[in-house]
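Translate structure to sequence.
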């Protein structure tokens, strides 16, 4: 168990909207909306159910060009005139605008509330302001955010928070996003997981059928259009269809890009130049800025709107569809594209600006000085709002454009910390080291000490505990001669933390106490929360109550000051202390709190840690299928997550595979041993060593069990981890190694070692571990108790242990031994697990992976793994073939 370290469109008051949209067909030349009646009905029904603090959410999704915005426009056009629609959109910038759609909404609202929304870069402050705006009138509003697949982390945070508050909102939250291109690691996946329950409606949009294309062709008034050929070329994508039908007289192009350019080619040279310029600006361009760029803007808008290329609402201008913008932008020569970015950059830097937009155009213009000038503020703005991936992108861009001296050192240092937060540990420690090296050259000891603190954090979680301690010690040595300071308090605290995490609790406590005392004198609550966190963790190794008291104080303080990372760490550290006291049910409460804060903060490594601890608890409590799914999902993530966490996750999974008799167990055990081989840290080494001891017990190899136990016994004694020592001794005893429990051995283990199987089994039943309960019952020599053990083991799927118990029952003379569950290959010829059978049924229903995830309350990543496994076991190549194969094998009801 490892401790942790839019714009409102319509009337000027922002209350109504008619014919809105940022990427739909031009309102006066709209092709009829075909094959969308059912989807419109879902939207209308969801909106009708809102009001009186009853909120709802509708997620409209599909591939690019599928007609998401056209559907939304048609729905909004049906709303009563008094309906408030607050609309914003995310843009395809190189790095997303921090809280961009909500800033758009604020600018559209106007007034004091609107200005506050448009100006804030603080996620929590924006949420409060947005909730106030939504509560300002009694009638339910529509809050529309389009293209959330391009959203920054802070925007996704706000959407997750709104998802959890639907029950108290008189609002329809309407989101659109592209389903294609969302891989397992896309941050939107986690946000979509927050939208669950009866108040949430998912509206997937399918491509048009040949009949639908024919209907559009008939309505286009274009002669000699072959609807079958159009459907063949477009695959039924509504945008592609519309583009082809909107280019009469042009030979049928071989790509939508050609269709777009055929239409753009109808523009006059002056308007084409304006369209080229605007194409380098994803999303909206404010009209004042557009007028600065295009002197004869009115003429250009009139001509381009008539052809359905640009759209305006009187406040800003944008492309009717992002694919149109991309087609224009990407066909320009590179030199022209750079010049257009340069013109945009000049206008942005002359007036009010958002750093993210400036950086986008500075990069496009190749203006290194502007990238450097605006990139760091953009990165820090993103980091402050919790948009850590965007912060990483900005810092990376800045580092590629000629930073020097102190600026270079600071960028490496801050980038290292942001990479740590998003679980890219290898890169994090590399940049932290480079930051330290640059500060050494700059001869700034205080700045160097700050960088060493960051290095201490990243080095430990990258599997370099000695480097972490050395960095923290050097920071203290640099700062102590300069007297008391906030930096010194922080250095004390981080030295205490890495010593605690490295199992040097006795040495850590004085440093944590110094940090605590200095933080109190300096009134530094952030440092105080960190110091109390690791003081509690260190003290908790020997004094549970005192340690948890410090950690509870750290958690409460971190919550009060809004420091979610420290709240996550404190909650996980409480959970770890409870784990080693066998208080697993109490632990779950704290893991839930850690997960909540980690998700809100996009603290990826903290979330990994919390979920890993949850799977360890599930293994104890007999929730093995859920633990297997959780561990598989964790280990399928980026391979760069913290090495100590990766080692522990691999070992816990190996032990689970061993207990279930999975053929992968041997390979998993070898990998776990490899990852933990050089570790002298108990939380890294113990899971792998315990798995090795249990494997030796199954093999009847007492000598191997003793070898596997040697390191973990020493670590358990050195850290005072009596629960761990007791577990090692009990498994050695089962393997036939003579042992005797020390006085400090917890009762559940000591009773079993002493041979009091009845009391030991009762204690395990009280604690909630059915596997250990069954093993004690199995050692009784009593037929009835041994049969009870077999029932428990069969229920868990503990095949190897159940095999041993059946052998003992035969030795006891039992003639009618329960056969247990049928082998899975006999139960279903494909060898599918119960959860995979659930997935098969939902695939047959036609659900997407996201919808299956919501139905089963698991992550989309987990569903992806199940779907891959199902296709492989059924021997089919696509989802559509699953139903036929499952029916043939008799797997469907």
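Result:
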């Amino acid at each position: 168990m490892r401790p942790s370290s839019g714009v409102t469109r319509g009337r000027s008051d922002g209350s109504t909207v008619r014919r809105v949209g940022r990427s739909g067909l031009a309102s006066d030349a709209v092709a009829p909306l075909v094959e969308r009646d059912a989807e419109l009905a879902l939207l209308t029904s969801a909106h009708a159910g809102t009001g009186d603090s009853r909120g709802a959410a509708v997620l409209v999704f599909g591939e690019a060009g599928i007609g998401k915005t056209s559907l939304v426009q048609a729905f909004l056009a049906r709303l009563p005139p008094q309906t408030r629609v607050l609309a914003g959109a995310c843009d395809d910038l190189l790095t997303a605008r921090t809280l961009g759609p909500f800033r758009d909404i604020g600018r559209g609202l106007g007034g004091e509330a609107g200005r506050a929304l448009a100006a804030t870069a603080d996620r929590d402050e924006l949420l409060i302001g947005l909730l106030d705006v939504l509560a300002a009138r009694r009638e339910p509003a529509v809050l529309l955010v389009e293209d959330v697949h391009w959203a920054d982390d802070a925007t996704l945070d706000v959407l997750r928070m709104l998802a959890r508050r639907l029950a108290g909102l008189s609002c329809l939250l309407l989101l659109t996003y592209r389903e294609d291109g969302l891989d397992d690691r896309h941050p939107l996946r986690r946000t979509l997981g927050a939208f669950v329950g009866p108040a949430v409606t998912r509206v997937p949009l399918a491509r048009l059928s040949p009949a639908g294309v024919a209907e559009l062709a008939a309505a286009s008034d274009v002669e000699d259009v072959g609807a079958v050929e159009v459907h063949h070329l477009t695959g039924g994508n509504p945008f592609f269809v519309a583009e082809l039908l909107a280019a009469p007289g042009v030979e049928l192009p071989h790509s939508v890009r050609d269709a777009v350019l055929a239409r753009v080619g109808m523009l006059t040279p002056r308007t084409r130049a304006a369209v080229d310029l605007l194409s380098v600006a994803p999303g909206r361009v404010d009209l004042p800025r557009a007028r600065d760029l295009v002197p004869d803007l009115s003429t250009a808008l009139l001509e381009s709107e008539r052809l359905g290329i640009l759209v305006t609402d009187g406040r800003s201008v944008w492309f009717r569809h992002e694919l149109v913008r991309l087609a224009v932008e990407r066909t320009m020569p590179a030199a022209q594209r750079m010049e257009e970015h340069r013109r945009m950059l000049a206008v942005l830097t002359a007036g009010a600006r958002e750093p993210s937009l400036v950086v986008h155009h500075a990069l496009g213009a190749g203006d290194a000085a502007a990238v450097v000038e605006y990139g760091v503020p953009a990165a820090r703005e993103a980091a402050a709002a919790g948009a850590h991936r965007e912060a990483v992108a900005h810092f990376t861009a800045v580092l590629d454009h000629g930073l020097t001296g102190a600026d270079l050192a600071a960028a490496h240092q801050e980038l290292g910390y942001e990479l740590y937060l998003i679980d890219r540990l290898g890169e994090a420690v590399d940049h932290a080291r480079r930051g330290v090296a640059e500060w050494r050259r700059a001869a700034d000891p205080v700045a160097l000490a700050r960088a060493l603190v960051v290095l201490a954090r990243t080095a430990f979680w990258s599997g370099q505990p000695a480097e972490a301690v050395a960095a923290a010690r050097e920071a203290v040595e640099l700062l102590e001669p300069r007297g008391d300071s906030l930096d010194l308090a922080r250095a004390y605290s981080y030295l205490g933390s890495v010593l605690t995490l490295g199992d040097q609790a006795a040495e850590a406590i004085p440093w944590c106490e110094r940090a605590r005392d200095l933080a109190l004198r300096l009134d530094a609550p952030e440092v105080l929360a960190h110091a109390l966190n690791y003081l509690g963790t260190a003290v908790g190794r020997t004094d549970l109550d005192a340690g948890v008291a410090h950690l509870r104080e750290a958690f409460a303080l971190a919550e009060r000051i809004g420091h979610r990372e420290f709240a996550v760490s404190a909650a996980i550290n409480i959970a770890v202390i409870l784990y080693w006291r066998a208080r697993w049910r109490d632990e779950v409460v704290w893991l839930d709190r850690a997960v909540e804060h980690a998700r809100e903060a996009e603290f990826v490594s903290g979330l990994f840690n919390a979920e890993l601890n949850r799977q360890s608890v599930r293994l104890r409590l007999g929730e093995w299928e859920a633990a297997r799914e959780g561990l598989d999902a964790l280990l399928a993530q980026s391979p760069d997550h913290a090495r100590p966490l990766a080692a522990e996750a691999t070992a816990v999974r190996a032990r689970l595979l061993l207990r279930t008799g999975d053929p992968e167990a041997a390979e998993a055990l070898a990998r776990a041993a490899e990852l933990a081989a050089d570790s002298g840290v108990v939380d890294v080494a113990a899971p792998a060593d315990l798995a090795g001891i249990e494997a030796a017990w199954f093999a009847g190899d007492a000598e191997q069990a003793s070898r596997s136990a040697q390191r973990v016994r020493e670590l358990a004694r050195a850290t005072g981890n009596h629960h761990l020592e007791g577990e090692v001794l009990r498994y050695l005893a089962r393997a036939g190694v003579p042992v005797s429990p020390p006085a400090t051995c917890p009762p559940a283990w000591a009773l079993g070692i002493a041979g009091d199987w009845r009391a030991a089994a009762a204690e395990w039943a009280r604690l909630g571990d059915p596997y250990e309960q069954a093993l004690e019952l199995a050692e009784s020599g009593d037929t009835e108790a041994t049969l009870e053990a077999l029932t428990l083991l069969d229920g868990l799927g503990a095949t190897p242990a159940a095999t041993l118990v059946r052998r003992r029952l035969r030795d006891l003379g039992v003639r009618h031994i329960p056969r247990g569950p049928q082998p899975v290959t006999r139960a279903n010829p494909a060898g599918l697990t119960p959860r995979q059978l659930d997935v098969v049924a939902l695939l047959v229903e036609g659900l997407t992976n996201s919808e299956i995830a919501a139905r089963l309350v698991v992550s989309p990543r987990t569903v992806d793994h199940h779907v891959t496994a199902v296709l492989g076991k059924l021997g089919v190549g696509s989802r559509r073939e699953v139903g036929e194969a499952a029916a043939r094998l008799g797997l469907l009801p």
